[in-house]
Structure formats: C-alpha cells, structure tokens
Amino acid sequence: MLFRIELGSLLMFARCPMPAVQAIHAPADPRTHTQSPIVTGTSVLGMKYDGGVIMVADMLGSYGSMARFKNVERLKQFGDFTVVGAGGDLSDFQYLEELLNELMQEDAVHDDGVALSPANIHGYLSRVMYNRRSKMNPLWNSLVVGGFRGGKSFLATCDLMGTQFQDDIIATGYGGHLALPLMREAHLQYGTTITYDQARQCLEQCMRVLWYRDCRALNKMQFAVINADGINITPADSAVVLSTEWQQKKMVHPGGHD
C-alpha cells in the first residue's frame, strides 16, 4: 500500500506493508440426502366407496430407469385405522415409517384410551413435510393417507412441498395425469354410492393404463381396504398381477394405419 508524504517541496511515497487479513470461511452447507432420488416408486391411487376406502400401489422400486426391485411394499398400516401409501424416494419413505412407528409407540405408552386418528397422522405428516421443505432439504415423497374411524372414511394427500388436502379420489405421480380422469368419471357416474366392486374395478383399470403408459410402473400391485371391519392389505406374496394385452394393432405397428 502506497502513502503520499509531502515534506516542504519534496514529494515522497512510502510503502507500508498490508495488514494481515484472516480468511473467513462460510458456514458449512446443510446436509442434504435426496435432492436426486435414486430408488423410487410411482403412483399411489385412493378412492372412497360407500363402506370405506380402497387404495392401490404397484410394487416396483425403480433404480433410476431400471426396473430393479419388484417386491417393494409401498402401502403401510399404522395403528388400527390408517394406511399410508408413498411414491417417490423409497429411503425417505423408510425414514417417515420410522417416525410414524415412534409416534405410534409414544401414543401406546400413554395408554390413555385415545388412539391417533387418520386425520391426526395426516396432519403430522403434513407438518413434517413442510418443515423439511422449509429447510431446503425436502423428503422426496408424495403421500396418500387413507383411513376409517367412527363410521367415517378419510382420504388425504401431502407432498414434498407440504401441500395437503382431502378429497374423495386421489392420485399421485403419473396417475395424477392418466388415472385421475378415469377416477373422476367413475365418481361422477356413481357418486358417493359407489360400491367396493365398482371402485375396485375402476382402480384396476387405472393401474392397467399406468402399466401401459408409465415406464416406472408394474402390473404387480397391492390393494389396501380400510372399512369398519378393519384394515386388509394384500400380502406381498399374494400380490395382484393384472392381465395385459400387448397385441393391439397400434402397439404392434405404431406407424401403421387402421
């Protein structure tokens, strides 16, 4: 650093050493794990019917674009009234599963005769998802919460942004584009009087369309039925395998004419 010094008629410059500057390091970046999910699941569908709620999800865990794991259970029961289904990063869903199991254990330890309702579990998940989103380290999942308690059906969703709502029909992932219109059509046709068989048929047709069109889908799936009799989830070793037909003219000759 140069300093100007005037002595009478003389003009002189003196060089002084620069003061030492300590290096300032920025604080460490927050830890993030699933900004680029690796093993993922696709759509989860849910629909209310006249006696409860029915949900479905396929059993594929995609490793990037490879159909790697074909026996993944994405519908889990929590307590006596609630089923949670998840799409997106499967490791994040395992983390959420641990949180919910701890929550259920804490609720059981209180032993106060009060059990968490499906709405309670959905509210808890919504807050967890929004909290992680606010920390810029979201849990990369789209969740569907279905339940039946006190004679009332419950169906709701929340996603990695913390967005949450309740509805009579819900579809996540690619199902929000291809399956939801079919579910809306069935719901408009039958309304709240839709039976279990009609709802099951609708969801099977939706999953068949997704198997044809979603490259991350599989025709092997689990159904969860929640009603006054309790919760029934299809066992993994008895998973439903949908029949498919690939000999349609447009599939055999995509560029051909009718």
Overview of this protein structure:
It is a single chain. With 258 residues, the chain is an alpha+beta fold. The protein has a single domain (39-240), classed as Glutamine Phosphoribosylpyrophosphate, subunit 1, domain 1, CATH 3.60.20. Helices cover 29% and strands 32% of the residues. It contains five helices and 16 strands. The strands form three sheets. Strands 3, 6, 7, 8, 9, 10, 11 and 12 form an eight-stranded antiparallel beta sheet that branches. Strands 4, 5, 13, 14, 15 and 16 form a six-stranded antiparallel beta sheet that branches.
What is this structure's SSE topology?
Elements: E1 2-7, E2 10-15, E3 39-41, E4 44-49, E5 52-58, E6 61-63, E7 66-69, E8 75-78, E9 82-89, H1 90-110, H2 118-134, E10 141-149, E11 152-158, E12 164-166, E13 169-171, H3 175-190, H4 196-213, E14 220-227, E15 230-233, E16 240-241, H5 249-252
Would you summarize the structure shown here?
With 258 residues, this protein is an alpha+beta fold. The protein contains 5 helices and 16 strands.
CATH fold-level label: Glutamine Phosphoribosylpyrophosphate, subunit 1, domain 1
Distance between the termini: 84 Å
Range of helix content: 25-40%
CATH superfamily: Aminohydrolase, N-terminal nucleophile (Ntn) domain
Rg result? 27 Å
Could you give the count of β-strands?
16
Number of helices: 5
Beta-strand share of residues:
25-35%
Which residues sit in consecutive blocks of at least 5 with pLDDT less than 50? none
What structural class do you assign from the helix and strand content?
A: alpha+beta
